[in-house]
Fold these 3 entries.
Entry 1:
Amino acid sequence: MEQLSEAGRLGGVFHAPAETFPDVSARGRWWVPALIMGVMGLLFVTLFVQRVGFDRMIQKTIDASPQMQDLPADKKADAIALQRKIMPPVMYTMPVVGVLAGIIIVGGVLLFVMNGLMDAGLRYKNALNICAYSMLPASIVSSVLMVVVMFLKSPDEFDIEHPLAFNLGAFLSPDSTSKYLVSLASSFDLFTFWMIALMAIGFSVAVGAKKLPFSKALIGILIPWGLWVLAKVGMAALR
């Protein structure tokens, strides 16, 4: 197979993933899409701070928390001051840390599943490449759409927890719906399914469709995803 350039790999996962992922798995540089996603995340946070601001986000958090509403005025002021101190560094570090942690953890989990349960015979670098390039299209498209929606809406109306109506949770009222139901519904997300489909294609073509067909690779990805959703819903129910 002809070796692709890095631009060819990055563009190929959008329009020709089945033809691109063999080269991605073998010769991809997983840190390149990770860097792009991190920069996109930092750009979104910068625009969010300019358009919406930390104070609006903090106020929404307070308004949605019965525990905060019940605090005495001086305690509430202390909590707000603490959030103002913590939120900026957290918001600016999360895009980079989140992307790296996501690729490293997801890559490790899927490598364990594919090698342990399906005898894929892959190396960790193969899994990192497949996961990183699979995450890139949905990350770029969702980031662009979030910026567009953020500037189309009033700053007071923008909800950073549900910025886009591409998951079922966006259609539920957080005030009248149980948190675990919102968490469960939010897991059924179009961009997540796009990433899962690309990962299944990536693992299938990297190993070989005869040894690891798309359907089998898809099941191997849906198993840990389902466990993650159950854990997330359980945590929401406890809260």
Entry 2:
Amino acid sequence: MKALLAALLAAVLVYLLYDTWAVSSPMLPRTGRLCDFSITGSVFEDIPTAIQRGIRLLEVHIYSDERDQPVVATKPQTAGSDVAVDNVSFESVCVDIANEAFPSKDPFILSMVLHTDRTVTINKVAEHLQTIPRKFLIPDTQIQTMDVSRLENALLLVSGGSVNGTALEPLLNLNWSDSGIRRLSLQEAIHPRDPQELKAFTRSGIALVAPDPRVKTIVGNPGAPAAFGCQWNLLGSGPPGLVAKESRTL
């Protein structure tokens, strides 16, 4: 009887201590603008594998096949090539994202580099994206300054280039032909023409750092892009997910 009473008293004490901690240290939802977070991304990686290891930023290089269907290269192509010999269908990429990327407290960002200007192919890209459940697609643009608490389970679409006048254009949340995001090569991010201007831009805009297949040797400090404020890194090996900028280095 004494042992039971002691156990009950211990349980009450633990509950009171936990209740006191919970009141003084509430679990507040994460807040902050999207541009205030850094993300380590991936390119030319098997989609399900990347998602399963926690990647929330994925870049795909889209080409047009012999039937004008969009395909995604599985490895870097020869510079200037408009054909991806080793590829998977863009439709399968959309299926993988819909099945594997959600639910998650972090948004999933899909950056699409178009290696074709064929309107029929680009419109097919939009058609496949619209097969992803609407609850994951958000209509907002200029989302770089949106609070991340509003982006849980959101699929964010980023692209640029030959999208004007296509069905893909209105689906984009960020367009690097506009002012909210810049897509930089690693060399451009390591050696910016105007470092102070780049730092100022990343206070409210997003810089995406991507590999350049034409450059075989990198000269400079690979950690420099983070020092200049660049948030989205497709070359890094840092932890997946969104991390406050000041707590991550490339």
Entry 3:
Amino acid sequence: MARISSYPFDTVISDNDAWIGTEATNRLTRQFTASAVANYLNLNAKVNIGGQMSFKWSDTQNGGVGTISKTGGGGSGSSFNNLTQIRISTKELNGQNVIKFLEYITGKPILLGQGDQISQFGHYTLDTYVVDPQTSSYYIATLTYIGGNGTVATEGTQYTLIHFDITGGSGVSVRQDFGSSNQWVINNTTGKAEPSVTLVNAQDQVIFGCIDYTNATTITVDFDIPVVGSSFLN
């Protein structure tokens, strides 16, 4: 076999490029592709990004170090708007302690996103974050759903959790959808005392209702008849 130093350098990497290595379980020589290594690094949080926490979903409440789970267990296959209380391991997948960071962003918007599917996510306000009285290795977080898409994936799927505020000077509206009702209760996550409110019906036509800024985080809209549609805060 030729000396390694005699092989030319390849500075253009493609997914199917491969190199030789040793498998840890049996010490046998194997080939590893660039795409497989990249996938391993991504899904096991081996590359740290400030403010981004990585966990694996567990259908068992308090399912182990580096997990995030629904209170009471289960959750896989359910819509993100059904997550109102979750259990978060005090350590993420790569072993970093997340307690103080999550305490710091309590009361702020967060995004829980599937690691390998960017369009599968839930956007929430992290309302409370307190130690689990049964075990200090987990914290209990209560959530208010803002928006999202898709459903919770199967057990073992990697999720990232980040502080995610789309209102801070970006000009992006915060949307909330409503079923047929005479009254819409809007979660005000803009940080503004009285944000502008735009209301549309199911046909995306602008409509009008009686708007009451109930408190710093809640806006109530009353209609004469039941209405299906969406609100946009800016």
